[in-house]
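Minutes, project huddle
Topic: does the predicted pose make sense with 2'-monophosphoadenosine-5'-diphosphate bound?
PN asked that the exact inputs be recorded in the minutes so nobody has to dig through chat later. Recorded below.
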Amino acid sequence: LDNSVDLPAGRPYGAIMGLAPSKGARSPILWRAAFDALGMQADFHPFDVTPENLPGLVKALKADARYLGGAVAVPHKELLLTELDRIDEAARAIGAVNAIRRDPDGALVGANTDGLAAVESFEATAGPVRGKKLLLLGLGGAGKAVAACFALAGAELMVWNRDGAKAREFAGVYSASGKPVRAVSDIASVIAEADALINCTSVGFAADSSDNDDAPLDLALLDQLPAHAAVFDIIYQPLQTALLRAAAARGLKTLNGKSMNLGQAVIAFALALPDADRDKAAAAMAAV
Ligand code: ATR
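Predicted holo structure (tokens), as shared on screen:
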């Protein structure tokens, strides 16, 4: 087993770890430009790393104080739960690490910024999450992260997944820890109770930004949402999904995944700054 790793020479750096992050990854461009915008002498390095070589890389990064933290791509998000020095509350609740920071004591801490960014983006459009009743569709990787953070933020959750076992398992874990989360199998019978509908399925996504008329539920059911309800689709490609078009046509508040997507990058970038200044990070990334 070859665990030897080449660390970049020179300046402090952030990094993304993935199977092949250099291919098409946006984070190196975003991070380098944001460091530049802040006048920081720092670089960003994409590590192509296999699951077998991940522990070796983490060990080397722990020992290299120039590593500031960074992003994590599939399939390492779960594996890192056991490789880092500490795991923060959101990453533990979600069961995945998508960002790493270095604490003042030198420890590498696993964080998760996906769900937090979803909550912040939602609150900016639809107001406080606490006490709201949300119907969330889709409990894949993204859906679990979003659902976990909405539950931590005090929402009441109804979760639905095409494969119902995933929804029942998620609801089981969370309701056991005292959170109001229940699995639903029939969207039609509960949608009228929802203050907001959140799509975390991949239905409506278009890899090539082409038109996509697919929707994760029968759009006629939107008529049953209360008039004050918001519809949040975490998809950001395209920005207008069939779900959001139909919701807007009914006069409902709508929100796409653009600010969540930028938000998770901003939060992760802020974790790598010496003062963890979120506003500074947001301004630097918005300028890119
Ligand atoms: P992501 O990282 O985007 O969350 P994922 O983990 O593959 O990707 O999850 C995709 C989600 O979209 C899952 O909830 C999936 O449902 P299943 O768990 O039943 O597979 C959901 N999804 C994908 N295609 C779907 C479809 N045609 N109808 C309903 N849900 C769908």
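Observations noted during the meeting:
- The longest strand covers residues 13-18.
- The pocket of 2'-monophosphoadenosine-5'-diphosphate is lined by residues 138-143, 161-163, 166, 201-203, 216 (CB under 6 Å).
No decisions taken; revisit at the next huddle.
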